[in-house]
Every structure is written in structure tokens, then in C-alpha cells.
């Protein structure tokens, strides 16, 4: 049976209406994902996680070093380190709460 061209086959032809519809659907999906919060900026989350870890480690290490130095200079062997570690923990938690409370862009 010969193909006489009477059937309609839109597989090969570009229809501008379908292209416009696809574009509008893509924009609508992106808008809905952004509005509903489904679209998450992973780079921002990774950066925020790094800031939290560095605040925690930096505060604890820094306060431990200062407490150790206070113990060495003033001879208050365990108390300088203990007090400074508790202050370092408080500062770290304060920074973590401040970082986690930032609003997304």
C-alpha cells in the first residue's frame, strides 16, 4: 500500500502553538515550584552548613586555646579551660541560631 500523504503526521513538523504551549508550561512549573518552596538552592544550603560547622569548631577551638593560656598564665589549672569552653559553646550556639535565622534570598 502506497503512502498517498492523506494522513496527518505531526512528528516531523514544528508547530509554533505546541512550542509556545511547552514554554508556558515550563514557566508555570518553575513559578509553582518557586512559590511552593519545592525549589531549593542547594549551593546556599551547602554554604550555610559550612558556616555552621566553622562557627562551631572555631568557637570551641578558640575558647579552648584561650582557656588553656589563662590556665598556664594564672595557674588556675582546670577552671580557665572549663569556663572558656562553656563560653565558647554559648557563643557557638548563638552564632548557629543567628545563621539559621537568616531569611532566604
TrEMBL record:
<protein>
    <recommendedName>
        <fullName>ATP synthase protein I</fullName>
    </recommendedName>
</protein>
<keyword id="KW-0813">Transport</keyword>
<keyword id="KW-0812">Transmembrane</keyword>
<feature type="transmembrane region" description="Helical">
    <location>
        <begin position="76"/>
        <end position="93"/>
    </location>
</feature>
<comment type="function">
    <text>A possible function for this protein is to guide the assembly of the membrane sector of the ATPase enzyme complex.</text>
</comment>
<feature type="transmembrane region" description="Helical">
    <location>
        <begin position="52"/>
        <end position="70"/>
    </location>
</feature>
<dbReference type="InterPro" id="IPR016989">
    <property type="entry name" value="Atp1_alphaprobac"/>
</dbReference>
<keyword id="KW-0375">Hydrogen ion transport</keyword>
<keyword id="KW-0406">Ion transport</keyword>
<dbReference type="InterPro" id="IPR032820">
    <property type="entry name" value="ATPase_put"/>
</dbReference>
<comment type="similarity">
    <text>Belongs to the bacterial AtpI family.</text>
</comment>
<keyword id="KW-1133">Transmembrane helix</keyword>
<keyword id="KW-0472">Membrane</keyword>
<dbReference type="Pfam" id="PF09527">
    <property type="entry name" value="ATPase_gene1"/>
</dbReference>
